[in-house]
From TrEMBL:
This is Replication initiator protein RepSA. It comes from Streptomyces tamarix. NCBIfam families: rep_init_RepSA. The gene is repSA. It holds the Pfam family RepSA. InterPro entries: RepSA, RepSA_streptomyces.
Length: 466
């Protein structure tokens, strides 16, 4: 193999495929397809086509078929939210989550949330799991209980000090019921708000609404915890101001009281005793500042933090991002000891609690909930954001083809006839290498643009100050 190929990270099979693709007549169009997917790691391959017709005259205004495409297929982005599966699509998902959370904090009339929502009381809450046994950690300036001062990237962080006494069964059962703990928390929270306001629950609901957006994150020990933006609204949601009694202090007190009340009972099974699952004592509730004037956390920080963890899952703890059928697979996958024991606990508990589907979610260490959720009135939806992006691209396509915009001229709308068939997914080795390079180039350009915007913002501030 040549030195150039080695420097480019190409093995012989990949190099051979890249040369084949580069010599093919559709190479430029292939690169264009890969670029339009953002460098997706595992695009969906489709065959078929579309026709745009004038509904009055039945004239074909435009026709497209995949017959002329490289390989006879159209490649579209897979849309996977996991960064471990597809960094390109995960970046898009994180961006959508950022705008969804931010719209509920600062308001965005274009997304259906008024700017006045910024004046509503809102907090950033973190709900954690209880302890299942001592783990290696970094307790401030003191050494860990094992006597070692661990580095920030030490592999043993979060793992059990004594695996023989660590409650692995309790940990995975807690993860498995975490979504139910959250559901009961939202129920008790509304009750605690009404009690503190001196109202019945019905009267409190008629005078105010509670909106939230949350994301799940795995701690190093493999336990799920939730980060949530919780906001007071008026009776009609974010369009109306909350009542005078709906204060930040009342919301904070109600959150703490509700979290302390929540419990989920798990019956005994086999040799495992009955359990009562609760939230951990490390509850954090912080007010969100509108402009960062001395507050601990700002709107920008919250939206960025939530978006960051929307694309991550249990693989951050050392497990894998695919289902595991049996314990023997753990040897082949090289799963570290701590997450391995958690996965084995899921597999052992599955026959005892078959309705909990612990075997199916063993790779998630028992957690089976949605990673990102929100209440109906919090802000816009991911579907609306995706539709806006699709509409924008469709408008670009119409402009390129010289077709009228149906919104500007309803009398000259077009009829779209489409037929698509699934033809597989993924890349050849050469396509995968090309897509990875395209994704890196896009990422580099984004980072460069971000640095330029930050520099211009700082310069603008300096000029304003002078």
């Amino acid at each position: 193999m040549s030195d150039a190929a080695l420097r480019a990270g190409l093995d012989l099979a990949t190099l051979s495929d890249v040369l084949r693709l580069a010599g093919s007549p559709g190479f430029d169009r292939l690169q264009d397809q890969l670029r339009r997917t953002g460098g997706c790691a595992a695009p969906i391959r489709l065959t078929g086509g579309t026709k745009l017709l004038d509904p009055a005259t039945k004239t074909v205004l435009h026709a497209y078929a995949t017959d002329t495409e490289p390989g006879g297929v159209l490649r579209v982005a897979c849309g996977n939210r996991r960064a471990s599966r597809c960094p390109a699509c995960a970046w898009t998902y994180a961006g959508d989550t950022y705008h969804l959370i931010r719209a509920g904090l600062v308001g965005d009339p274009a997304k259906g949330t008024p700017d006045t929502v910024r004046d509503h009381p809102r907090v950033f809450t973190t709900l954690t799991a209880p302890s299942f046994g001592p783990v290696h950690n970094r307790p401030g300036n003191r050494p860990c209980a094992c006597g070692t001062r661990h580095a920030e990237d030490a592999s043993e962080l979060g793992t059990a000090l004594d695996p023989a006494t660590y409650d692995y069964a309790g940990a995975v059962l807690w993860n498995n019921h975490a979504s139910e703990l959250w559901r009961y928390f939202t129920i008790y929270l509304r009750r605690e708000i009404a009690r503190r306001a001196g109202l019945t629950q019905k009267a409190a609901r008629e005078a105010s609404r509670l909106s939230f957006g949350k994301v799940a994150e795995y701690q190093k020990r493999g336990a799920v915890h939730f980060h949530a933006v919780i906001r007071f609204d008026g009776p009609d949601g974010p369009d109306t101001p909350p009542p005078a009694w709906a204060t930040l202090d009342l919301l904070t007190d109600a959150i703490r009281a509700a979290a302390a009340r929540v419990q989920v009972d798990v019956p005994a099974a086999g040799d495992h005793p009955a359990r009562t699952l609760r939230w951990g004592t490390q509850l954090d509730v912080q007010p969100i500042g509108a402009f960062g004037n001395g507050e601990d956390i700002t709107e920008q920080a919250v939206a960025s933090y939530v978006a960051k963890y929307a694309t991550k899952a249990a693989e951050t703890t050392g497990t894998v991002d695919r289902r595991i059928g049996n314990k023997e697979a753990l040897d082949l996958l090289g799963v570290p000891d701590h997450p391995r024991r958690l996965i084995e606990a899921c597999l052992d508990l599955h026959p005892l609690y078959p309705d909990r589907k612990l075997r199916d979610w063993a790779h998630m260490l028992g957690f089976r909930g949605h990673f990102s959720t929100k209440s109906r009135r919090y802000s816009t939806t991911l579907s609306a954001l995706r539709q806006a992006r699709a509409d924008y691209r469709a408008a670009e396509q119409r402009a390129a083809l010289g077709l009228p915009d149906p919104d500007d001229d309803p009398e000259h709308s077009t009829l779209v006839l489409a037929h698509w068939a699934y033809a597989g997914h993924g890349h050849t080795p050469g396509e995968s290498w090309l897509a990875a390079n395209i994704r890196r180039d896009i990422q580099h350009n984004r980072e460069a643009a971000r640095e330029i915007r930050a520099a211009l913002h700082d310069l603008e501030g300096e000029l304003t100050y002078e």
